[in-house]
Design brief:
The chain is mainly α and about 160 residues long. The chain has five helices and two strands; from the N terminus they run ααβααβα. It has one domain. The N and C termini lie far apart (about 45 Å).
C-alpha cells in the first residue's frame, strides 16, 4: 500500500471521527441536511473541475468510475463544511467571524498545496492555490447561509 492510499484512508478515519466528536448529538438531523446540500455542490463542481482538466487526480478511489477525487468531494469536504457550520462563532465580532473563514480556507488550501507538491493525490493543470481558497470561501459561505435559511435561524453576521 503506497502513501497516497494511506493518506486517503487516514483522511476518511480522521474526518469520520471528527464528525462524531464535534457534531452535537441533538444536531445530527441538521448536520445531515447541511452535509447533503454541500455534497451535491462539491460533487458537481468536482466533476466539472476534473472534466475541464483544471485539476487531475492520479491516485483516487474508483479510478474507472470517475475522474474526480471521490473522497474529498463526496465525503471529506462536505464533512468539513458541516463542522464549519456547527462550530461557527455566531455570537462573536465580524472580525472573528471573518478570521474563522480565513482559518478554514487557508488550512484547506495549504493542505491542498502540500498534497499537490508531495503526493499523487492531485495535480494542478490549469489551477492555482488562490482559486481553491476563493472556492472554499464561497462554499463555506453558501453552507452557512443555507443552514440559516433552511432552519430559519436568526443570524448575527
Amino acid at each position: 500500500m503506497n502513501i497516497d492510499v494511506i493518506l486517503i484512508i487516514a483522511g476518511w478515519i480522521f474526518i469520520a471521527s471528527s464528525l462524531v466528536i464535534l457534531i452535537p448529538k441533538n444536531k445530527i438531523r441538521e448536520a445531515q441536511v447541511v452535509f447533503l446540500f454541500i455534497q451535491g455542490i462539491t460533487w458537481v463542481l468536482g466533476l466539472l473541475v476534473a472534466q475541464f482538466s483544471l485539476i487531475e487526480y492520479p491516485v483516487r478511489p474508483f479510478p474507472h468510475a470517475s475522474t474526480t477525487n471521490f473522497s474529498f468531494e463526496y465525503f471529506i469536504y462536505p464533512s468539513i463544511c458541516t463542522i464549519f457550520t456547527f462550530k461557527y462563532p455566531e455570537k462573536k465580532s465580524a472580525f472573528i467571524q471573518f478570521m474563522y473563514y480565513f482559518y478554514y480556507c487557508t488550512t484547506l488550501t495549504v493542505t491542498e498545496v502540500i498534497a499537490e507538491k508531495y503526493t499523487n493525490l492531485l495535480k494542478y493543470i490549469n489551477w492555482d492555490w488562490y482559486i481553491s481558497w476563493i472556492a472554499f470561501f464561497i462554499i463555506f459561505y453558501i453552507s452557512r447561509k443555507y443552514y440559516i435559511w433552511f432552519f430559519r435561524l436568526k443570524q448575527n453576521d
